[in-house]
Amino acid sequence: MRNICPILGCILLAVMSILSIPERAETAELSEATQACLGCHEAVTPGIVADWKKSHHARVSPAEAIKKPLLARRVSFKNPPAGLAETAVGCAECHTANPSTHKDTFDHNGFKVHVVVSPGDCAACHPQEVDEYKHNIMSEAHGNLLKNPVYKSLMDSANCLQKFDGVRARLTTVDRLTEEDSCIYCHGTKVEVKGLKTRETTMGEMDFPVLSGWPSGGVGRINPDGTKGACSACHTRHAFSIEMARKPATCSECHKGPDVPAYKVYQVSKHGNLYESVGDKWDFSAVPWTIGKDFTAPACAACHASLLVNDGGEVVAKRSHRMNDRSAWRLFGLPYAHPHPISADTTIIKNKAGLPLPTELTGEPVQGYLIDKKEQGKRRASMRGICLQCHATSWVDGHFARFEKSVETTNQMTRTATDIILAAWKNGLAKGLDKQDSIFNEAIERMWVEQWLFYANSTRFASAMGGADYGVFAEGRWYMSKNIQQMADWLRFLGAASRADKTKK
Amino acid sequence: MRNICPILGCILLAVMSILSIPERAETAELSEATQACLGCHEAVTPGIVADWKKSHHARVSPAEAIKKPLLARRVSFKNPPAGLAETAVGCAECHTANPSTHKDTFDHNGFKVHVVVSPGDCAACHPQEVDEYKHNIMSEAHGNLLKNPVYKSLMDSANCLQKFDGVRARLTTVDRLTEEDSCIYCHGTKVEVKGLKTRETTMGEMDFPVLSGWPSGGVGRINPDGTKGACSACHTRHAFSIEMARKPATCSECHKGPDVPAYKVYQVSKHGNLYESVGDKWDFSAVPWTIGKDFTAPACAACHASLLVNDGGEVVAKRSHRMNDRSAWRLFGLPYAHPHPISADTTIIKNKAGLPLPTELTGEPVQGYLIDKKEQGKRRASMRGICLQCHATSWVDGHFARFEKSVETTNQMTRTATDIILAAWKNGLAKGLDKQDSIFNEAIERMWVEQWLFYANSTRFASAMGGADYGVFAEGRWYMSKNIQQMADWLRFLGAASRADKTKK
Amino acid sequence: MRNICPILGCILLAVMSILSIPERAETAELSEATQACLGCHEAVTPGIVADWKKSHHARVSPAEAIKKPLLARRVSFKNPPAGLAETAVGCAECHTANPSTHKDTFDHNGFKVHVVVSPGDCAACHPQEVDEYKHNIMSEAHGNLLKNPVYKSLMDSANCLQKFDGVRARLTTVDRLTEEDSCIYCHGTKVEVKGLKTRETTMGEMDFPVLSGWPSGGVGRINPDGTKGACSACHTRHAFSIEMARKPATCSECHKGPDVPAYKVYQVSKHGNLYESVGDKWDFSAVPWTIGKDFTAPACAACHASLLVNDGGEVVAKRSHRMNDRSAWRLFGLPYAHPHPISADTTIIKNKAGLPLPTELTGEPVQGYLIDKKEQGKRRASMRGICLQCHATSWVDGHFARFEKSVETTNQMTRTATDIILAAWKNGLAKGLDKQDSIFNEAIERMWVEQWLFYANSTRFASAMGGADYGVFAEGRWYMSKNIQQMADWLRFLGAASRADKTKK
Asked: Which residues pair with residue B164 across a beta bridge?
């Protein structure tokens, strides 16, 4: 029996390797700089280090990563990044890259370290993804909200303090911290260096940069090196895994509320039911991602971003970090659903009324700034190509016919609500643009906002993704319809109160 | 050491078989027809094929399936279906069955194929389940909604477009696509063949049937063969697994919104907490389903449908596809909770006022159409029998005492809201049946609808399933109570506006 | 090859042990009494028994449990409980403990059994946890709600029936069953013995105590032995596992609704995203709980209760069952967020207006009953210590700066809403305390309630836990802002209706 022990050992090892998660046993060397970081940070921030140790970054050098077959690659550089090719991607590789462009660079134990790793840093190994993301509307999410006076005014209507004067309540001020804790949390803060501060640490006195707009993981973060975006918004620190970015919960961080309820709709869709019920058996780490083999129903990333292949290894959809590459419509109504803007920077858009909106207040899409029907068709075809892997043509055709109808009817219902608010402004029962007032601050104006921002959006998302239960009663058609009736009544009540006020005087 | 390799191989195989999911290593032959289907469809719709390959259907022939011990059987036929007994249940077995009854049958590469597999097809192997489902109110969900003028009017109030005339908003038209994307999505569409269409495919030109009402997976689907229902609503295509049907997410596709928030209530209940926390260790595929061994807290199916046994193999509850077999009350208020209807087709019901409703507007259940107290007692006893596997009698008695009280008090609160709407109609501040108008279209009428459809329903579901957190503030008692106050105020506002209008004139 | 079979056997056993869940193979003896219980109850309540069999209690005797290293212990007694040390913790050990103090003790097959196992019973092995819990505000949740006339009045506004008199709707009565099915479900019922009842059982006629307030698993349950609380609220029966108590779903049973949406906020936070996406790989049973190794993002218990260590085994946070030990603020506004009360019994608090509230109606915290700034600082430091395991100081500082600002601004928004309701009371458009009326029953009063109970609370929880998506549109800042506008309009409408009523007369 003396032979058994070594056999047992080797077999158990084989079994363990089947059971354990890592796909490959690669272990790249760590750079000396990274080893120096770890020397302290394993004790100082053990959670970060533990997370990173489980990552691909900790095991695979760029030089090894580029050797994989084209479709299996997670890197996209042509030439290996100078000085970074042969070691694992550790603390120093990211946090000391490009020191001269980073305004947040500071001296830290003899290293030029920066706090905010940016897409500019990630581009060393992932240039294609970073470039695509630049053309993704998400990368401009900060400016698109803050530099558009209409949207900024909508934002104020959520965040401003208010005072009651005995008759009416009025918006007063808002502060930066509140905005960063509210809309800007997802849209991304502007991170700025406000000097250095000396702090007592377990290693003695040390200087650290003082950052405003920090913490920040929003998709359109303005980084101290001038780049925009935060890859870690989806590829969560410090594992930066593709699994995490593909799991729908990641998207839910910003796409769950009634304005963009994509995640909630997914959850009640058949696709979401499958994920919830049997998704624990799927492989979210495989690159490329094989339909049917790695998963049997799509998660968010499958339809909107990931590189998909079929069982024969043929490409069904190319990876894209311009997230709307497969979407013909921008469902998010402002106030109407519309073809996707061409430029990621939407502040350049002007409608006929001179407002920086992609549609007129009456619904027509603005010309010149939005993708045309041909481009819409191309994007729709990309999406359909994915659907058709599991659904016959008649199924897919039927689905899209309903969806296009929903875009049309929800826009019509927004138009009806807009007619009411226009009447309110005209009759002096609410103060609009002609009175140099916000169009989002009064009660009836907010009911109008909810018509498109919550109910029409929710209905469209539900229609797009097969989540009817959400689209009917949860936050959809019922409310879209009820809200119009309530707005009309409210307008009558405002009229009656206004007349009563006059009588009183 | 030369002996080790084969040992290693066989051991690894043993280990792999422990790790892999399938319960049995059965592999039935595929029919020639199914092999022909797979020849193309593995490439054309790989997702479907991959899903099916993981199914019982792909591995077990009906002849094998019927050999299992009675309680372990997943089939219920007496005589093996002609010509289908000895091969696996593949594409052809379902999609070419009963060609003459299927109006969606078309010529496809030499086969008579139909698109919409129906309960009539499934009945070949599962006749008992199909028969039970016929008596399940869900199978009539299409007609029960569309052919009942009161409910159709409620449906219109969610789906119709509206126009604002400067003073009031009025419902206008609705289209079929919208309805199919809304209420009918869950209730089930009517699928009809509208001719043939030639399409260019990767295999050359081919004819396919043009279907209206497609796609469709609603529980009361009207199929081209005249049958009603879609087994795939819960036994999701193309794995058709019992695991999927038992997982609560499956039910959530149609039972999550505020009208029937069973899933949300389950999630906050102690049972749901257990499922969410430790349910990944439960066995959702075992037939029969053993309490305590296979699971330690019920999911939806355990209480409402599944065959349950105790550790000794004794039957605790018989499988039933008439889902209300263990439910004394229909909690879904129309507008009041009531004993379950006797017939699955509820369009036959008439109350004293001549309306097709199971209760009077004042709350009394209609006579003759609903189950009597004896049948209620029998169903309650079935449910209690399940509870008692994990709870002592005093616990169960206490639970049901609270639940019965909730049925009573929520109905009383609906009555109070109804008194307000009756006053609105009487005083001409809203237009009801006496004015030949919908009773669901105006703002105050919709507030009344929410009283029973959202708040009373939610409170009752929360009470039935121990989800108090949902039943108090999420969508329950707080809103049930607040809504009455708001309705009363709204009625006063309508009165004041009405008088102001008259003064104005 | 004859050697292979035994090798195979032993290897498979090794593999199975890797795969199986239990951490240790301990198997303590069962007491004779427990064996007697099991003799019947394995058949009578198999679900309970199956659950218990998987528990630590079923495997480990107290004498073994105390031998573990200090940080790994799950028991806290100094002297082993008399007579209980050497056997597993089975039915009899808990259900026959302390018979004289338990009013629910009854004769059952020769044993003195009680139904309601209480913290007094658990204290035999877990005295420190029970003692901490006594100082946890949750243990007083029953009295804090029912014995505070202001809160009881709020409770009535959710639970009372109402009648409509043709003009106004008024609250009428409420019953005990409704309260137990509503607020008291989470706060905990008062369980009282109302005599004995003889029941026919499968074992013949038997006597059982009749309990009112049963079932009950609320955190502040008043037990028949006079103790307060239910350990099983979180350590769910009958596994009583630490895993279950640490899983966030457990907390969701009472912390999901809009009044305390901690769970919903967690779900959209980055921490919750990580749990949802990769938490299935974490170890929720390890004691102590090692940051980075056992989990890479906190669940509720990690921040608020659990014993945490770093990879080096150093204590990062001590276990505490006084749940607010690491929380400087009580976010739950009544109506304003305030420093935590010192005493778990909050009925002793009186504000300047003589009301049993922790703040004045105008927002100032009451003096003497709430923790001071020093204690707040201490608690904040405990929490920060946990954050700092994965986040740098500047990240944590930035987070807390925003959070403190949110406490301030949400309180200001509550103040503005309060100004409106004060005007309503002053102008006779709603009836407040000066009219000896509830301040929570009328429509506009309920809008005011939602301002702090739903919207300000939600905003604060979202701010505290990084769940901005919830805090902006789901139930947060948008509604907090909109509600003020709606309240102001509603007040005008009430005024107009009131004047119209007078004109009419």
From this structure: B169
Q: Are strands C289-290 and C308-309 parallel, antiparallel or unpaired?
A: parallel
Q: Which residues is B315 bridged to in the sheet?
A: B309
Count Cα neighbours of B237 within 13 Å in the Cβ-side half-sphere.
24
Coil, strand or helix at B167: coil
From the list B389, B473, B487, which residue is nearest C46 (CB)? B389
ipTM score for this prediction: 0.94
Nearest CA in chain B to C214: B398
Render pLDDT for B208-230 as a digit per residue (tens, 0 to 9).
999 999 999 999 999 999 999 99
**Contact yes or no for A247 and C277 at CB 8 A:** yes
pLDDT tens digits along C273-321:
999 999 999 999 999 999 999 999 999 999 999 999 998 899 999 999 9
Which chain A residues are Cβ-neighbours of B217 within 8 angstroms? 270
**Is residue C149 reached through a cis peptide bond, with omega within 30 degrees of 0 on the bond before it?**
no
Taking CA–CA distances from A275, the nearest residue in chain B reads B249
Q: Which of A404, A421, A257 is nearest to A337 (CA)?
A: A404
Taking the CA of residue A329 and the nearest CA in chain B, the distance in Å comes to 18
In b/e form, how buried is each residue of B248-287, taking b as 16+ CB within 10 angstroms? bbbbbbbbbbbbbbbbbbbbbbbbbbbbbbbbeebebbbb
For residue C6, give both structure tokens: 């035994």
C-beta atoms of C158 and B477 within 8 A:
yes
Measured in residues, chain B has a length of 505
What's the Cα-to-Cα distance from B181 to each of A476, B176, B214, rounded to whole Å? 11, 9, 10
Residue of C nearest to B279 (CA): C244
Chain C environment of A210 (Cβ under 8 Å): 394
Which residue in B472, B484, B502 has the most chain C C-beta atoms within 10 A of its own C-beta, making it the best mutation to test that interface? B472
pLDDT of residue B80: 87
**Among A15, A469, A489, whose Cβ lies nearest the Cβ of B254?**
A469
C-alpha atoms less than 13 angstroms from C-alpha of B62 in its C-beta half-sphere? 23
Distance CA C301, CA C235 (A): 12
Q: How far apart are CA C398 and CA C401, in angstroms?
A: 5
d(CA B139, CA B346): 11
Q: Which CATH superfamily is domain A324-504 in?
A: Hydroxylamine Oxidoreductase; Chain A, domain 2 (1.20.850.10)
Residue A193 bridge partners (DSSP): A211
DSSP letters, B415-456, are HHHHHHHHHHHHTTSS--GGGT--SSSSHHHHHHHHIIIIII
What's the pTM value of the predicted model, to 2 decimals? 0.95
The torsion defined by the Cα of B215, B217, B219 and B223, in degrees rounded to 10, comes to 50
* Pairwise CA distance, residues A388 & A396, whole Å: 7
Q: Which of B11, B292, B409 sits opposite C8 (nearest CB)?
A: B11
Q: How many CA atoms lie within 13 A of A122 on its CB side?
A: 25
In this predicted structure, what is the pLDDT of residue B23?
Answer: 43
Distance, in Å, from the CA atom of B272 to the CA atom of B264, rounded to the nearest integer, reads 9
Q: Which of A277, A394, A398 sits opposite B208 (nearest CB)?
A: A394
Q: What average pLDDT does this structure show over C433-450?
A: 97
Residues of A in contact with C413 (CB under 8 A): 161-162
Task: Please list the ranges in chain A whose pLDDT falls under 50.
Answer: 1-6, 9-10, 12-25
Average pLDDT over residues C474-482: 97
Q: pLDDT-derived band of residue C505, with 50, 70 and 90 as boundaries? A: low
Q: Per the structure block, which two tokens stand in for C307? A: 């014993």
Q: Where are the domains of chain C?
A: 31-95, 113-233, 239-321, 330-378+390-505
User: Nearest Cα to A192, choosing from A220, A218, A226?
Assistant: A226
- Give the architecture-level CATH label for domain B239-504: Up-down Bundle (1.20)
